[in-house]
Structures are given as structure tokens and as C-alpha cells.
Please model this.
Amino acid sequence: MIDPDLQELAELWQEPEVRSLEFEEAARRARRQGKLLAYADLAFFVMIVGGSAFAALSAPGPVTMIAAVFLLIGTVWLTWTLRKIRQMRRTLDTRDTFLASSVQNARSDLRRATLSIIAFPLLVPAALLIKVAFRTHSDISHPLAILTTWAQSTRGILTLCALSLVIAYQLRSRMKAKGELRRLEQLRQAYAEETQHEASNGS
Amino acid sequence: MAVGRSKEQLFDEVVATCTGLITRIVLSHEANPTLRREMVQDILLAIWLALPNYRGDASIKTFAAAIAQKRCISHVAKHAREPRQVELPLDLVSSAPPPDEIALRNDQKRQLVDSIQLLPIPQREAIVLCFEGFTYAEMATILGITPNAVMLRCQRAKITLKSIMERRS
Model:
């Protein structure tokens, strides 16, 4: 059913442009990827359950067994529930909840990136000082000197380079998450305005 | 799956019947051909993953369109900066009318696609589904609003689209 007013434009819009071979190839890839994902899901599940069972059996004892049973039940339940939720969310979301969950995801990404940017530069010196404390039996009376010596060593330089890369990557992720969040908020605003128009015209 | 068909069969049906629909929905949101190919792939994977939830309440085309629209929104939120104006491929029309007619048709189509890409997303979704021949009830299912709201949104989209096209021509 096409509005007669739009008939001409609709015909123009629907003119064949489709490269069906390309589409079929994409469909084949999607099918393969989907099956692989399902196998990976299963492999992950088997790995956790198998690993837990092996660990429980290799050091048998009542406490280990109870922990293993809880772990097994928990893992099965969690995997199953998450899988169900994931599949449902893909199709059953209404536009509003879809946007709301997208906004929530983007916010979580932003928080994760911010936290990583704060945590990584603190974690490296902290880990180094703990390591030195272990080696020297808690003698870390000159932490700054320890850190300076370490930073001048080859290992220190390499670690600092890696840390800089990680931080740069996190900064980029943060910027991307911020952009995504801004665009999602704009989209939400656009939908809200549209709904408002419809409500005022409908009443 | 309450429709008595396997996931494979349903996916085959999607591939057979929704090629144009998915390609054009993607075209309305992304001007870059490489990104468009990625989006098509992404949408097909999402459809494959979502097929176990297909209950047959709506047509498979409606189901595919709903997923395609949502994937496009995610794509726009993740990648889009500004509406991109990339040259469309020259072989948009593959039939064989005279070259001047092809050029004119290509030009008209390019103008239409560019104008659709400039519409606000809520209106863009509505007008594309309208062009694809969905009923208001089907569009309401896809967009998650009432048929009455769909009708109003289509009207607004039509007016905005025509004004954009007039300004551009």
C-alpha cells in the first residue's frame, strides 16, 4: 500500500540496484558466522563445566564438591538465562526500550573506559611496589627511588610504552563512547519530538 | 520457532525475499558502499541469531525490516558523524534504456537517496518503509508505535522529503 502521492518516488526508490550475488555471499558468511558463534558458545560452556568438574574431581572433598556443584548449576543457569535474554532483546525491544538499552550500554562503555584510564596508571606502580615489597620483605621505604630505577630499566621502558599505548587506546575508546552516547541522546530527542508532534496532531 | 519451519528454511526465505528491502534500508542510512556491505552482513547475522524468536505473528519481511532498522540505528549511533555525501555508483540502473534516460534516472535516484539520508531518523524510517509498500499496521509493528502515529509520521516525512528535494533541485 503506497500513498498515491508517493507512487512515483517509491518506484524510483525500488528500482533494481541490488547485487544479489553479493547479497547471497553476505548471507553465506552470516550463516557461517552464526553457526560459529553457536559452537563458540557451546565450547565456552563445555570448557567452564568441564574445568570445574575436573578441578572438583582432582582434589576431592566435601567442600570442593559442594562448591563445584554450585558452580556448575550457577554456570548452566547463567549461560542459559543470558542466552535467552540476548536473543529476546534482539527482536522484542520496542523502539523506546531499544534506545534506552543502547544508551545504557554506551554509558557503561564510557564508565569502563574512564575507569581504565584512571586505574591503569595507578595499577602499574602499585604492582611494582608490591613485587618489590615481596622480594625485599616489605622494605619499600623509598618508593619514588624504586619507581625511578625501574622506569630506567629496559623492562620499565617497555612496560611504560605498553601502558602508554593502552591509555591511548582507552582514550580513543572513551571518545568513541562519548560520541555514541551523544548521538543516541540526539536520536532519543528526535524520537521524543516526533512523538510529541504525533500526540499534538492526533488529539 | 512456532512456524513449523527450520531456521535454515526461514533464513533462505529472508535471502530470497528481502534482498532489495535490506539493501535499500541500509542505503537510506549509509552512503559509503564499503560500510553498506558491512551493515548488510551485520543485519543478516542479526537476523540469523534472532530467527529462533520468530513466531510467525508478522511476515518474515516485517521481521527482517524490524531488525534491519534497529541495526541501522545502532550503526548510525556508533559510526555516523554528519550525513555523508558520497557519490553513488554509476550502475544504479542496470536495465538498458537510452543513456540520457539512464543519466536522468540516476540523477533522480541519487537526489532521492541524498534527500532521504538528510531526513531525521524517525521520519527516514517511516518513509523508507512506506516506499517499500508496508501497511500502516506492519509499520506500526516494526517501529513500535500505533498505526495512527505511523500515518502522521509518514505525512510529516513526505512533506519534509518533498521540501528537501525542492530545495536541492
About this structure: Helices of chain B lie at 7-17, 19-29, 33-50, 60-79, 99-118, 121-131, 136-143, 147-168. Chain B touches chain A through 66 residues (CB under 8 Å). Residues 147-168 of chain B form the longest helix (22 residues). The radius of gyration of chain B is 17 Å.
